[in-house]
Amino acid sequence: MTVLDLFAGPGGWSQGLRELGLTEVGIEIDPAVCATRAAAGHTTIRADVAAYPTTPLLGTVTGLIGSPPCQTFSAAGLRAGNTDLPLCHQALDDLARGRDTRSALRQACSDPRSLLVVEPLRYALALRPDWIALEEVPAVLPLFEHTARLLGAVGYSTWTGVLNAADFGLAQTRRRAFLLASLTRPALPPEPTHADGGTPADLFGDGLPTWRTMLDVLGCPPAVVVTRGNHTTGGSTFPTTGPSWAITGRARSWLLKVGNRPAATRRRLDQPAPTLLFGKALNDVSWIDIDGTPIRRLAVEEAAVLQGFPTDYPWAGSRTKQFEQIGNAVPAPMATAVLGAVLPTAVEVAA
To answer: Which among 105, 132, 142, 302 counts the fewest CB atoms within 10 Å?
Structure first.
């Protein structure tokens, strides 16, 4: 099968496909992201998705993946995409009618990147792949629902909804909108592999394990509690190389803080991380002490693991670009679960 990955990013979808024994060809314009993909062994066409022609791809694409840039719709950005929503809906309808009005509508947008969300439909209508998997921030769900209706009109079974990556083994409560479509089977969401607090065994199975935590994936050592005789002083020392987890209630643990506001999200090490956002300042994602004292910024390797990548993933570009790539990537465990739900089975491929 030939799988085309629009706005391919550093390789979240690619890693998910590898787990399923498949590869793809990605289209990506950012040179640093392309360098990361090359170092990781992912095939890439460096090009602008919105300008790339579909004609050379006719008859070659059986699967289509797309994660359009989310900055204009993200809660971490200025949300200019909210203003541009009517123009995006119009572009979808125009494409379905065979009219390409993207150029004129792009000029009318508050942020021209907003219109990139319609590109997967342009490719889908031209190439008619067997299956489609799209991902974006939850604010884009109405556009995904509109896209799904248009795909349904040309024969696709579709599903749209919001999934939490923690339900699929990621140590992060990252919520994203998805659109799944198929010409060969009913489009259904993936079955969760984990649950908040876990679920008990019943007649139908063993139940689900609880969400994975930062402690689980980062391998945090316990804090060293200072003791005198039979009494604990309440003090603790922390390793400088990584977060620590207190072994008593009186000792202190590291927490992860995302955001620089007084009400910024804070999570303990025995919880999943919140959604990692690396927008304007890297020190917005930092380790702090239990009393709020800053310890240090989150390391690239830690961010990568919390996003489902291996610790030695070959990130390219500046430190800022590396964090940007991590924050924008589809977590590999999430990609594997979603793709496993939409890919044809071996029996269907043989038929």
So the answer is: 142
Cβ atoms of residues 271 and 220 within 8 Å: no
Rounded Cα gap, residues 215 and 172, in angstroms = 11
CB-based contact 339:345 (threshold 8 Å) = no
The CATH-assigned architecture of domain 3-197+328-350 is 3-Layer(aba) Sandwich (3.40)
Strand order in the sheet with 294-297: 265-268, 255-258, 285-288, 294-297
pTM: 0.91
Residue 232: what are its φ and ψ, rounded to 5°?
A: -95, 130
For 91, 122, 195, 297, 337, the CA distances from 191, given in Å and listed in that order, are 33, 29, 11, 35, 8
Mean of all residue pLDDT scores within the chain: 89
What lies within 8 Å, CB to CB, of 146 at 6+ separation is 89, 92
Terminal C-alpha separation, the chain: 14
Sign of the torsion formed by the C-alpha atoms of 288, 212, 217 and 13: negative
Token reading at 65: 């993946």
φ, ψ at 263 (rounded to 5°): -95, 20
Residue 202's pLDDT band (cuts 50, 70, 90)? confident
Alpha-carbon torsion 248, 250, 254, 258, what sign? positive
Residues 163, 334 contacting (CB under 8 angstroms): yes
Tokens standing for residue 30: 């950012």
Domain positions in the chain: 3-197+328-350, 214-314
- Tell me the CA distances in angstroms from 349 to 5, 24, 174, 344, one per residue in order: 20, 17, 32, 6
HSE-up of residue 18 (Cα within 13 Å, Cβ side):
13
Q: Which is higher by pLDDT, 234 or 154?
A: 154
